[in-house]
Amino acid sequence: MTTQAAFLERVKQSLCPPGNGVFTVNTAKERKEQLHQSLYGQTNDIENLWADSLDKLAAGSKAVMLGVASDCGGGILRGANWGPLFVRSTLLKNHPSLSHFDLGDVRVIPHLLHDKYLNDQTIANCRKALYQNEASDLAVSPLTITEDVLHDFYATYPDKGVFGIGGDHSISYALTKPYLQAKKAQGKRAAIIHFDAHTDLLVERLGIDLCFGSWCTHILEDLNDPSHLIQIGIRSSGKPKAHWEGTFGVKQHWAHEVLERGVDAIIEDILSQLHEQQIDELYVSFDIDALDDSFAAATGTPEPDGMTPEQALKILQKLSEQFPITGADMMEIAPFTDSTGKGAESSEKTLKIGAEISAFLIEQMCK
Questions:
Q1: Measured distance CA(18)–CA(278) in Å, rounded
Q2: Residue-wise pLDDT tens for the chain (367 aa)?
Q3: Which end of the chain is more exposed for a tag (fewer CB within 10 A), N or C?
Q4: What distance lies between CA 110 and its chain's CA centroid?
Q5: Domain ranges within the chain, ordered by starting residue
Q6: How far apart, in whole angstroms, are the C-alpha atoms of residue 325 and residue 108?
Q7: Please, what is the Cα angle at 284 between 106 and 345, to 5 degrees?
Q8: CA–CA separation, 234 vs 274, rounded Å?
Q9: Could you give the 3-state DSSP secondary structure of residue 283?
Q10: Does domain 4-366 have CATH number 3.40.50.1970?
Q11: Which three-class secondary structure state does DSSP give residue 190?
């Protein structure tokens, strides 16, 4: 069992203050300062203020926020690395009474994804850059850092949950794996409710096994049954629904089914499955492109013919009335990105909707 003191020391090395996950000097400086002013009441000495705030984690909210400002696992349009900074700012602006504890951001070297892809010399070099100690035993890639920190987090604070902000969707691999393993160790049956336009069930993409299009495949072994991965909003796929359900054993509700059958019928099906399979808790992974691109254009892979925010929130509301949401994430919001040509207002619209869904999830986690 990890002691609180040891865990917090690990956090101070592996993480950094909220909003600082993108390694930069001047880019978005004003936005970072606005965030720090809101969180700490000043814009200087932030590293020490953040480190001091960690002592309040044990007594803080059940919902613990973690930013992972990495889009190295993406593969179409980049820019989701700015998600943690912008989503936090929008939450503070639009949902000022929201209760949660902000653990900070993972320290991200933007060229790295997972330590297993690195040779020993690269790891030593990166440890020297991140920790000023090339002999350190700490991870250096964002997915590995996230997974390592959260294994210790759940061992130290078993009654708390993490709300992760990305970043590209590969990050959900590192968020859900320790969550699922912790729940199994506690004897609890957890299901992943996955909102997305894409299945993310590739075995690998261009030779890389962990990325935004494959993360789901590599957490199936940590579920009590593959069907405990329930995907909602799928519509962009080179293969039919029967292929994914038949090959991997997952359960899918495609976007056209939500439209054709109605959201209430989909909710009834999901609730029936969760009760039948005796699920205890839910983790919600929300890729913003699950929504129609008229609502979510500021993302790497916007897709038409998706759900409305109202439909997504209704599903979440009805599920939360019968099952506790104990972990969640918001992924793939890329504030500077818009491939649809819908104009500058698309970023604010995407952020507003993403923050509304995030606020709902955080509120449920606080319960």
A1: 37
A2: 569 999 999 999 999 999 999 988 888 899 999 999 999 999 999 999 999 999 999 999 999 999 999 999 998 889 999 999 999 999 999 999 999 999 999 999 999 999 999 999 999 999 999 999 999 999 999 999 999 999 999 999 999 999 999 999 999 999 999 999 999 999 999 999 999 999 999 999 999 999 999 999 999 999 999 999 999 999 999 999 999 999 999 999 999 999 999 999 999 999 999 999 999 999 999 999 999 999 999 999 999 999 999 999 999 999 999 999 999 999 999 998 877 776 668 899 999 999 999 999 999 999 9
A3: N
A4: 17
A5: 4-366
A6: 28
A7: 75
A8: 19
A9: strand
A10: no
A11: strand
Give me the count of residues in the chain. Answer: 367
What CA dihedral angle connects 59, 167, 22 and 18, to 10 degrees?
A: -20
C-beta of residue 271 within 8 angstroms of C-beta of residue 319: yes
252 forms bridges with which residues in the sheet? 231
pTM over 0.90: yes
Tokens 């990050």 correspond to 171
Helix (H, G, I), strand (E, B) or coil at 356: helix
Sign of the alpha-carbon dihedral angle for 109, 113, 114, 120? negative
Using the CB atoms, write b or e for 123-148: b if 16+ within 10 Å. Answer: bbebbeebbeeeebebbbbbbbbbbb
Radius of gyration, alpha carbons of the chain: 19
User: Which has the closest alpha carbon to 167: 247, 239, 113, 102?
Assistant: 113
CA 139/CA 243 separation, integer angstroms: 36
- Supply 90's token pair: 């929008």
Distance between CA atoms of 293 and 259, rounded to whole angstroms? 15
- The structure tokens listed for 211 are 């990325």
